[in-house]
């Protein structure tokens, strides 16, 4: 296990990058604490795999350093970093049995035969392939091969870190849940530093102690699932986390009040904004529906009953937004206004959250 430090790290695939837009990975400084489980979350092309491959040694950064426990490993190969990595698509040896595939990284390290047998049997059970241990990998389904690849990453107990690059893409939904549970248990049992790349918020939020949200090559927030939900540091985080995501309204903010059109909105605290584009973000859970009275005029387009709650799709302030009602709650007859629970309001300027003091939140 190791503490992983990213020191002024940045990367461009261009030979002579001139501007920030030329960098696939914008400058990043961060410590990945020894023994924690992280998820790198973001949409395709945001830089997740680039960052993971730099940490593993498959890619050398254009700028900055990677350190393990304070030692500079920027120019070290993957094997020298003692990393276990699992890729999106299965990498297995078809001529070997499942047992031999799982044992391969252990034999390369010349571990005792008895210890190899113990670890292979244990991981075979974790991935649900005990019955296939002596079967050749050739002819197995894609998801079975990915389970082998996943098992090879999990079989070593002495690694500095385990890195997973969207490893459950080809796994069926039920097995995804089981393997996520096993990965979580592996982390609890052995305390490996784990970094898990995914574009699936459910995978990220259920697996990680902390989620690293990336957008356009930049880390926009690092936090616990609760922090990402309650205080998104960037409008993208609010949009990407949650289903439906956070509503964002253009607004004018003055102290403890915001105005959306002609409607006055009470804020939970005093906010100071500059001259940038000001918005307020409100998750659907904090949108309240009313018939008449004060609030923002709104018209309901449709109501979707998804069992645990109702999603109300509506138009207000010139855009389309969402409200959530708990199971069993009724939409007020003639509802034509929305208001917000002040505790659920966040203020943004140029997409970054403005803290009550007026300082922009750090990513």
TrEMBL record:
Endpoints of the signal sequence: none
Gene3D superfamilies hit by this protein: 2.40.50.100, Nucleic acid-binding proteins (2.40.50.140), P-loop containing nucleotide triphosphate hydrolases (3.40.50.300)
GO molecular function, one term: ATP binding
Coiled coil: none
Keywords linked to the UniProt accession: ATP-binding, Cell membrane, Membrane, Nucleotide-binding, Transport
Gene Ontology cellular-component terms listed: ATP-binding cassette (ABC) transporter complex, substrate-binding subunit-containing
Keyword NADP among UniProt keywords: no
Annotated ABC transporter domain residues: 4-241
Family annotation (Pfam families): ABC_tran (PF00005), OB_MalK (PF17912)
UniProt family annotation: Belongs to the ABC transporter superfamily.
Protein name: ABC transporter ATP-binding protein
């Amino acid at each position: 296990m190791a503490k992983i430090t990213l020191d002024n790290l940045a990367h461009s695939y261009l030979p002579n990058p001139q501007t920030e837009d030329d960098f696939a990975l914008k400058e990043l400084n961060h410590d990945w604490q020894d023994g924690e489980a992280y998820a790198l979350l973001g949409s395709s092309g945001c830089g997740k795999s680039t960052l993971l491959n730099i940490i593993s040694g498959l890619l050398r950064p254009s700028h900055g350093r990677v350190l393990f426990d304070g030692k500079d490993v920027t120019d070290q190969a993957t094997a020298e970093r003692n990393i276990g990595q699992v890729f999106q698509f299965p990498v297995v040896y078809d001529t070997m049995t499942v047992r031999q595939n799982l044992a391969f990284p252990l034999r390369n390290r010349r571990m005792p035969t008895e210890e190899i047998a113990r670890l292979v049997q244990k991981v075979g059970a974790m991935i649900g392939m005990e019955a296939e241990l002596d079967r050749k990998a050739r002819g197995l389904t894609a998801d079975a091969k990915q389970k082998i690849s996943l098992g090879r990453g999990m079989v070593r107990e002495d690694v500095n870190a385990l890195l997973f690059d969207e490893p459950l893409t080809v796994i069926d939904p039920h097995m995804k849940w089981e393997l996520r549970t096993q990965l979580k248990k592996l982390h609890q049992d052995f305390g490996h530093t784990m970094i898990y790349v995914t574009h699936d918020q459910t995978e990220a939020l259920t697996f990680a102690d902390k989620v690293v949200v990336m957008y356009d090559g930049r880390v926009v927030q690092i936090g616990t699932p609760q922090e990402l939900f309650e205080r998104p540091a960037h409008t993208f985080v609010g949009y990407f986390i949650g289903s439906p995501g956070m509503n964002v309204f253009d607004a004018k903010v003055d102290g403890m009040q915001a105005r959306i059109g002609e409607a006055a909105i009470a804020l939970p605290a005093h906010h100071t904004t500059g001259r940038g584009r000001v918005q307020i973000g409100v998750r659907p859970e904090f949108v309240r529906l009313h018939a008449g009275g004060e609030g923002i005029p709104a018209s309901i387009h449709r109501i979707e009953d998804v069992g645990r709650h109702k999603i109300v799709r509506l138009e207000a302030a010139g855009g389309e937004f969402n409200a959530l009602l708990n199971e069993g709650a009724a939409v007020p007859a003639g509802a034509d206004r929305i208001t917000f629970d002040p505790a659920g309001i966040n203020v943004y300027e140029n997409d970054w959250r403005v803290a009550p003091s007026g300082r922009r939140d750090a990513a």
